[in-house]
Amino acid sequence: MYEGPIQDLIDELSRLPGIGPRGAQRIAFHLLDAPEEEVFQLADVLRRVKEAARFCEVCFNVSQETRCRVCRDPRRDRSLLCVVEESKDVVAIERTGEFRGTYHVLGGSISPIDGRGPGDLHTRELFQRLADGTVTEVILATDPDTEGEATASYLGRMLRDFGVRVTRPASGLPVGGDIEYADQITLGRAFEGRRSMFGDEPEPAPQPTPEEPARDETTGDDRERNTAYQSLVGTPAR
């Protein structure tokens, strides 16, 4: 344990995602050894980000304005809507250059262990965006892990009533991984080969049942008499 502000800094850094106690200690001592102006610049950037950053009023992507760059772009295909967990997933998908639709950021995934349910995500706003009928396909690009699959399954069931095509990126993404870490080629191909969650092919029409031949209700004795009669007169008995 260190004394005073150094230990306080290590404790705060270790609370960040992906940073353990040892990593926090390395960062703390790096900042301690860094020039004063660099540390003050970092502190100023952190303050400005917290004060200026906001979320898009339409898709909840991180933005500096009321609407993000994607939602402001008139060249985007409004009929395609890609649902992701976090804003970092938008950045990963945009790097591929394969998707020209719009996005909806849920703000996380369904996780009973963490006490996070559908009501804690931007699901209600998603359903509201589908109300006017502009969107014809929803791509559920949540992470291919347990929470992401549970979120996609829930949304898929809810979206069936909206009359839109519901798809999921094709296989190729690592199971249990995050979309943000997928390389551009793999992610681009996953979007190109996205598959429907419910199947797009119409159900085949039922085949007509072949008619069964008429059943001979005559008894064995009747058939024998008919055969004998025909052998005598040469014509079938009436």
How would you describe this structure to a colleague?
The protein is of the alpha/beta class and 238 residues long. It folds into 2 domains: 4-52, Helicase, Ruva Protein, domain 3, CATH 1.10.8.420; 74-196, Dna Topoisomerase Vi A Subunit, Chain: A, domain 2. It has 9 helices and 7 strands. It has a 5-stranded mixed sheet with strand order 4-3-5-6-7. A hairpin with a 6-residue loop joins strand 1 and strand 2 (62-63). Helix 1 (4-13) crosses helix 2 (21-33) and helix 5 (87-96) crosses helix 8 (184-192). The protein is elongated and about 60 Å long. Residues 212-226 have a biased composition (Basic and acidic residues). Residues 194-238 are annotated as: Disordered. Residues 227-238 have a biased composition (Polar residues). Residues 79-174 form the Toprim domain.
